[in-house]
Design brief:
The complex is a heterodimer of chains A (340) and B (106).
Chain A: E1 2-9, H1 13-24, E2 29-32, H2 40-44, E3 50-51, E4 60-61, H3 62-72, E5 79-81, E6 86-92, E7 95-100, E8 105-113, E9 119-122, E10 138-139, E11 152-156, H4 160-169, E12 174-179, H5 188-199, E13 203-207, E14 209-216, E15 220-227, E16 232-236, E17 239-242, E18 246-249, E19 265-266, E20 279-281, E21 286-287, H6 295-313, H7 328-333
Parallel strand pairs in A: 1-2, 1-8, 2-5, 8-20, 10-17, 11-12, 11-17, 12-13, 19-21
Antiparallel strand pairs in A: 3-4, 6-7, 7-8, 9-18, 14-15, 15-16
Helix pairs in contact in A: 1-3, 1-6, 4-5
Chain B: E1 3-7, E2 13-17, H1 24-30, E3 50-53, H2 55-58, H3 68-72, E4 82-84, E5 98-100
Parallel strand pairs in B: 1-5
Antiparallel strand pairs in B: 1-2, 3-4, 3-5
The chains are: A alpha/beta (340), B alpha+beta (106).
């Protein structure tokens, strides 16, 4: 059982800055995120894309923003629990007890949900019969490439994951790369490499096709792919890999007794508390009149929610408002030494 | 005010007055049309406001900007009339636009 003041769910920019705001008022926090790295949508959806509306930063990428936020919260030595997801939240006396999918347990006086629009999960094939092969012959990620050795693998997708694995697996497997159009959105170098391997006959490139059906009993024998004109082509295959990016699912959050409004959590605008005392929601996941899904709004919400958490963590103390510029106490929390 | 018709996958049709300047996505979300999720809020970052534009309207729409086709790759069962409704801005020229909604968004 990990004891802390605040459990922050979500390691996107909003969650990270709330850690900062908690830290400077002297509260400890722990962060849980479903992804394998810190940064949330910024790192998963647009690491290289420029952001132009962070105050006082004319332009930065999602990755740069994340790096700077990590740097900014370094003094607080926060623990991150990545690739883990909060499953259960329940109240015991005046504490929240939290359990994750990996079985970790936390006890916190409050919770800040900074969960974007839920947790990221791979987008799956839409055809019904795919379900029974998922995890056996249909995969959305590769754990061990040797598993596919000397087999025929049909890879679907047009981004870097699809291209990377097509290139990698073409060394020891028969690879068919299937994509719905001629252009690929992956990095230019990857696209060229795939085209080169296709010329050499090491990758069979089938563009303007999408999966239509799967044939086979307990094992996949072949698949049918269909182009926009309705022409169907049948190809033999052993395994199917789908790389269609990620989709956001609200997941277990729906079971925590929170009011929901179209996949969002209504909050007050005083401190972004939800209908559950001690659970706050900030960033893209919260909603209130006038809500904007901007990173800067998430920062503001985090600052106020942190003060809201203080009342639960230190019920007998009054929080004094202080500036980082002048407060010795705050600066010592930030690890800054002054000679005065 | 321009009228936009949203046809759900089950065939149910909704004719909505949408103000000029809003996106086709916003018109759906503000009027609680089921079938448009718009998880990212209009940032062309999630492909959950995917629609099929009625054939006769498709060529009348402004062309896709960089990135839209990339996101459509990830949409649920895209076809050649696929657009992201967050990228379609309502104007008088779009009065009468008909879009069909996919079976699901994700």
């Amino acid at each position: 059982m990990i004891d802390t003041d605040v459990l922050v769910i979500g390691a996107g920019p909003t969650g990270l800055f709330s850690v900062h705001q908690l830290g400077i008022i002297g509260l400890k926090s722990e962060v849980v995120d479903n992804l394998d790295k810190i940064g949330g949508q910024c790192i998963e959806l647009y690491p290289d894309k420029p952001i132009y509306d962070i105050p006082a930063i004319p332009v930065c990428t999602g990755e740069e923003l994340t790096k700077n936020l990590i740097e900014q919260i370094k003094p607080f030595k926060t623990n991150f629990h990545l690739k883990d997801r909060v499953e259960e939240v329940k109240k015991e006396k005046n504490k929240w007890l939290v359990k994750t999918s990996k079985g970790k347990e936390f006890k916190a006086s409050s919770i800040i949900i900074a969960g974007g629009v839920g947790s990221f999960e791979p987008r799956k094939f839409t055809i019904k019969e795919c379900e029974k092969f998922e995890g056996k012959e249909i995969f959305y990620s590769v754990k061990d490439k040797n598993f596919f050795k000397n087999k025929t693998v049909s890879i679907f997708g047009g981004g870097d994951s699809a291209l990377d694995w097509a290139i990698e697996l073409s060394v020891s497997s028969k690879v068919q790369l299937i994509h719905r159009r001629d252009e690929f959105r992956g990095a230019q170098a990857n696209v060229e490499k795939v085209k080169e391997l296709s010329k050499q006959g090491k990758i069979e490139l089938l563009t303007k096709y999408q999966l239509n059906s799967i044939e086979g009993g307990s094992n996949i024998k072949s698949i049918s792919i269909k182009n926009e004109d309705g022409n169907i082509k049948k190809i033999e295959t052993n395994y199917i890999l789908g790389f269609f990016g990620l989709v956001m699912q609200l997941g277990p959050i729906v079971n925590w007794g929170l009011n929901l409004d179209h996949k969002h959590i209504p909050v007050n605008t005083k401190n972004f508390e939800t209908n559950q005392k001690g659970i706050f929601a900030i960033g893209d996941i919260c909603t209130y009149p006038g809500k904007l899904k901007l990173i800067l709004s998430g920062f503001h919400e985090g600052a106020l929610a942190a003060r809201g958490c203080y009342e639960y963590a230190r019920p007998n103390e009054k929080l004094k408002f202080e500036f980082t510029t002048t407060s010795k106490k705050v600066q010592s929390r930030l690890g800054i030494k002054r000679n005065d | 005010m321009p009228k936009i018709t949203y046809i759900e996958h089950n065939g149910k049709s909704h004719v909505i007055d949408v103000s000029n300047g809003l996106s086709v996505m916003e018109g759906a979300v503000q009027n609680n049309i089921p079938g448009i999720d718009a998880d990212c809020g209009g940032g062309m970052a999630c492909a959950t406001c995917h629609v099929y534009v009625k054939e006769e309207w498709f060529d009348k729409l402004p062309k896709k900007e960089d990135g839209e086709e990339d996101m459509i790759d990830m949409a649920h069962e895209p076809n050649k009339f696929s657009r992201l409704s967050c990228q379609l801005t309502v104007s008088n020229e779009l009065d009468g636009l008909v879009v069909q909604l996919p079976e699901k968004q994700a």
